[in-house]
Amino acid sequence: MTYAEFQQAVRAKRFAPVYLLYGDEDFLIDEGVQAITEHALDPGMKSFNLDVMDGGKVDAKDVVAHAASFPMMGPRRVVIVREFEKLVSAESAREIVTAYINRPLESTCLVLVSLEPDFRRKPFTDLKKKATLVECKPLYDQYVPGWVADRIQRLGKEANADACRLMHAYVGNSLRSLQNEIDKLFIFVGERKQITSEDVATVVGASKGYTIFELQSAVGRKDAKEAVKILERMLTLGQSPQMMIVMLTRFFNQLWKLSDLERRRIPDSEIAREIGIPPYFVKQYLEFRSNFTTAHIEQNFKALLEADTVLKTTMRDAHLVLDILIISLINQPTEAVPLPL
After folding, report:
1. Is there a contact between 209 and 233 (Cβ–Cβ < 8 Å)?
2. 274 with 257: CB under 8 angstroms?
3. Four-way CATH pick for 3-135: 1.20.120.80, 3.40.50.300, 3.90.79.10, 3.40.50.620
4. DSSP secondary structure string, 18-82?
5. Can you tell me the distance from the alpha carbon of 191 to that of 237, in angstroms, rounded to the nearest whole number?
6. 113, 185, 187, 273: which one has the fewest Cβ atoms less than 10 Å from its Cβ?
7. Which residues have C-beta within 8 Å of that of residue 86, sequence separation ≥ 6?
8. What are the pLDDT digits (tens) for 224-256?
9. How far apart are CA 164 and CA 161, in angstroms?
10. How far apart are the first and last CA of the chain?
11. Residues 26, 34: Cα–Cα separation, whole Å
């Protein structure tokens, strides 16, 4: 059963008598355990029908005794055993647990948690046949922004794609760390329903000691010294070079759109909506736009594409490639610095 299928079944109150939650993503494991507890038990009955045990400190007979007990004043009992692999380290314990797994009590949800199950040995071989197995593994990079967007939506707000990608760039793949930053963002935006890239930069980026928007601002002002200093700090702290290129490309695309909007005398509120920035940033972006000719912006799109290609297809040092890129973005087209091939 996939993690999504597991969550769907639990929310629909379709419970299995034995679960094994395993894998390296402990945030999903904890969330899965919490889901079973919340949906299987009445809130007032948790003290009677919930048992949480540490596999390294409890005896297998005690686990089975609790699992084989009928619930009190409710339809279901939940027994959670963490570090299950420690519980079954002895052969006698494996035999006791295996016997229960083969004939579980239907009114009990026995939830076994193991970070390192060995499916070549009992009782894990029996669990593969008799229990509901849910693997909680870390997400691949390409799925993390989508997870962030879905998580924010489930909690009652919306975040655009740029905000979710930027969150991933700052925080990485740890779902627990991402959730912590989402919690901070919700406090920061208050009643506002939309979370923007600027919000992420302000809340998450500031806590990391750097933001892509600081780099954009330095480039927009044509402050090469400050831009290179910010760039080096971001790279040293683990910021993704590819994400910098994505966000800088977005920045120059916004400046490109500004030319037409400004010529048409569009009001600031509509400019903000069209290019995807808060209204109070419009004046600053208009100042940035005045620093770049159309030809210069066109040249910068080429430089950004070239840098992205070099990073993806060669082993060139990212620091050098991006240092040269930043200088090229700030210099006039006739002064553009060639990237190392």
Report:
1. yes
2. yes
3. 3.40.50.300
4. EEEEESS-HHHHHHHHHHHHHHHS-GGGHHHHEEEEETTTS-HHHHHHHHTSPPSSSS-EEEEEE
5. 32
6. 187
7. 55, 56
8. 998 998 898 888 877 788 888 988 999 999 999
9. 5
10. 47
11. 12
